[in-house]
Amino acid sequence: MKSLTRRIAAIAWPAFLVAGVLEIAVFAFVDPSSLQTVSGAALEMSATAVYSIAFFMFWLATASACALTLLLQRAADDVNSRVWRDG
Question: Residue ranges of the domains in the chain?
Answer without folding.
Answer: 47-75
